[in-house]
Amino acid sequence: MSFGYLLLWMIGISNLSLVVRALRTRPVQNYGWMLASTLVLLGMGIIAHLTDLDTAGYAGAVLWALLVAIPNIGGKRIEGLCRKHQYARAKGLAIFFRVLHPSRDYRQLPSVIDALKSAYDGKALSTAEMLRRIGVANDSLSGSLLAHWFSLTGDWTGFVEWVRQTGGESRVERDHNLAANYLRALGETGNLESLVRLSSRFSRWSTDVSGYSNAVRRLFLFSFCGRKNAVVNLFNGPLKQFPSSNQLFWLATAGMAAGEPQAAETFRLLTASEDLRIRKGAERRIKDPVALAETSLSISALHEVSQQEAEARIDDRLLAGPVKNSRKPYATYGLIAANLVMFGLEGLYGGSENSEALFRLGALVPQMVLAGQWWRLPAAMFLHFGPLHLGMNMLALFLVGPFVEFAVGTPRYLICYLGSGMLSMGMVCVLVLYGVLGEQFLVGASGAIMGLIGASAAIFFRIWRTERTQFASQRLNSLGVALLIQLAFDLSTPEVSLSSHLAGVIAGALIGLSLRHRVGSSAS
Predict the structure, then answer these.
(1) Which residues contact 456 (CB under 8 A, 6 or more apart)?
(2) Is the pTM of this model over 0.85?
């Protein structure tokens, strides 16, 4: 089977997931280009599979990058520039990406960005005109930019009404970026009971793995509910990149909601801020102070806020690894470097796709291992068949490795990685010895990486069992889905060793359960 076909298989799965998600959030006719591109990719995949032509697979990958991946990355970049008020650069990118992204959502972006620039300059359009420009705004990017516009104009009542007219909470459930802004709108309009209730539900919806989206949601919840210490913790952790003026604004908001008289003085100082939104926000706080949380919330709502505050402290420890520690994941970097060095040696010995070269360097041949060449068990873990195989595994190691390295420490991390890899290779040898498998010729770090995934699952399971934290539950669900996708891929691809992967996951999980970790309340 060609690598081009394998590459296209993975891209097709990614593209199909985008289509399914899109069909839940917008009419089919507004996302026809994605459906069309999916059909093109499937067609190329069939051609690549039937003809064994790598060209078809790589051509499909290029088309996917141009029509889907790059424009979507561009959309995130445009959104980020708008939040930094760099509207000229955002408009330039919008004009460029709407050529690659042939959908109505991107065609309207330059006009929407012009409206944001006008609002920032104090020349806001009417709500009716802005809604006309942005259209139905059923996509995440348009909804986020519209929420940004409401923030610039301070029309939070209009924002709440717009959300209710365009799907209400069912729409918010589908768009987490929109949900965070909607939570703020509820707080700004004094609807604290709905803010607490919806924030609790949003916690269960979230698939955020970085913790940032949850932190923003919690910022609005804790600020309007007067939990100043919790806000301080957010700014010391996942939201530490917030500008100082923003931090002062939300700390003063929390203080005002808690009844602190000095909060008004902070807002008076912020009326001189260079940031228009901070300046106008401070003026609104002085003119219309936020409600006192203790008198505005029911006992059950106050209890819910306290529960979420406790959960935030636990989740902060879960996410406190490489983000809050200056220590780099040097062991992960070292393993990646070792694989790259071995890949270079493969080239010197005849090429990474040369079976003779791989055999000489230590590819796993069970009969040779059983005959006494045990050194092949670790050696095969650092060999790869071609650049794509190497790139995929090193990307997975880069994404999975740092968390496990932080969680268990460098020595235990290396034990987990090397132990999982060699046990997975050893299991293949045992299965060959007993006739379950035929002849095998294996190379790659997949077994060790699957072991890291198993170890991650074990760590999060231990935390979930003791803390019942939402973040640990979400990570367990995400890891479970990833393993199911990997299993489906293994079953449909004869060249991939399903036995090695399963053995790696099991070995990693067992090692992970036996190792002490330093996240959650059970930190060592």
Answers:
(1) 400, 403, 404, 407, 475, 479, 512
(2) no
